[in-house]
Write a structure and sequence with these properties.
Blueprint: H1 3-8, H2 10-17, H3 20-26, H4 30-38, E1 44-48, H5 52-63, H6 68-81, E2 102-107, E3 113-119, H7 125-135, E4 140-142, H8 143-152, H9 163-173, E5 190-195, E6 201-207, E7 228-231, E8 235-241, H10 243-248, H11 251-260, H12 265-278, E9 288-294, E10 299-303, E11 309-314, E12 317-322
Parallel strand pairs: 3-4
Antiparallel strand pairs: 1-5, 1-11, 2-3, 2-6, 5-6, 7-8, 8-9, 9-10, 11-12
Helix pairs in contact: 2-4, 5-6, 6-7, 11-12
Bound molecules: aspartic acid.
The site of aspartic acid has 12 residues, from strand 8.
Length: about 325
């Protein structure tokens, strides 16, 4: 469908594209249907943290009639290639032994998904994850197998440890104190969700994981259902922060399921964070941030500590939106 026509006819086109619970929850209330349909804004993209270059790239793909899947892949690749982002891709902070290891996943409108964990020497982990999805009968490849597969697929082999990250690691080794830092920088693990002009949703998530993690540690980011989940009938969610807690609560899946039950993306993200807080006595020591989008293009975000934000790019413009937080300071 032509994008401009789609936006212009948002009421009809949008309603026709709605699936599952959203449509049925609105069908008896024409006013609610009208209000919700007004908020429909495709194409659009959101991403964890203030990553304007990544969301701009994704939006460019969407404006060129690209799919949500292409948009999220190309969008997060911007951060993977940015050596100044020390939480993702090349330049990421290493594990305790000085190795940069990457985790990533991707999920499309048909619930196809692919992931890599503990990937060394290849910058674009998200693209390797997509190849796992498209070229293998599997969902997740790990470690040496993932690396071998990537090289066979033609991805270049590169040293991911930059001098800056190496020097910081050498400094860290003097004390070797493992203490995850809250809001370590303005842009962190990147999770991205996009809706294309057909109203289809896809998502991607990519990270170098917690700085100075144990060798072999994998967090939530490449785990479908934890760091990312998309259901094209309902919406998508993705996470950043202390991955172990997101895995324990299957955070992104939970948020999509809460939206299926009728919660708004904002309400669902708040409940996702509350579940973690309820089971974690020392929740003040950690940061978790969720973002979500539903089929109507409504978005939400919530975190434990202030400081987390998300980038949104739609036909209404490009903005950095601070997420409300459970703690106020
Ligand atoms: N969630 C990531 C992990 O646990 C880290 C992050 O978002 O900063 O590996």
């Amino acid at each position: 469908m032509d994008r401009r026509k789609f936006i212009k006819n948002g009421g009809l086109g949008g309603a026709a594209l709605m699936g599952g619970a959203w449509a049925s929850s609105c069908k008896d209330d024409p006013q609610e249907m009208e209000n919700k349909t007004k908020s429909l804004s495709a194409p659009m993209v959101i991403a964890t943290w203030d990553v304007p270059n990544a969301t701009a790239k994704a939006y460019e793909v969407l404006e060129g009639e690209g799919s949500a899947l292409d948009a999220v892949e190309q969008g997060v690749m911007v951060e993977e290639a940015d050596v100044n982002n020390q939480s993702v891709g090349k330049g990421g902070r290493p594990d305790r032994d000085g190795h940069v290891t990457l985790d990533a996943c991707i999920m499309d409108k048909d619930s196809r998904c692919g992931a890599v964990v503990y990937l060394k020497d290849v910058v674009h982990a998200v693209s390797v994850a997509r190849k796992v999805m498209e070229e293998t009968p599997h969902v997740l490849l790990a470690g040496e197998g993932a690396r071998k597969f990537a090289l066979e697929m033609g991805f270049p082999e590169e040293n991911l440890l930059t001098e800056k990250s190496r020097q910081e690691w050498l400094e860290w080794k003097k004390t070797s104190k493992y203490e995850p830092v809250i809001n370590i920088e303005n842009h962190d693990t990147i999770g991205m969700l996009a809706i294309d002009s057909n109203g289809d949703i896809a998502g991607a998530c990519t990270t170098s994981g917690m700085a100075y993690k144990m060798a072999g540690r994998v967090g939530d980011s490449p785990i479908i259902g934890a760091g990312l989940f998309v259901d094209n009938e309902i919406g998508g969610a993705t996470a950043t922060g202390m991955g172990e807690e997101v895995v324990r609560t299957v955070g992104s899946f939970l948020i999509v399921e809460l939206m299926r039950q009728g919660k708004s993306p904002q309400e669902a993200c708040e409940e996702g964070v509350r579940r973690i807080i309820a089971k974690k006595e020392n929740y003040r020591d950690i940061q978790i941030g969720f973002i979500a989008v539903n089929k109507a293009g409504e978005t939400g975000a919530y975190c434990i500590h202030p400081g987390f934000s998300y980038r949104k790019f739609s036909e209404r413009g490009h903005e950095n939106i601070p997420a409300p937080s459970y703690l106020q300071s």
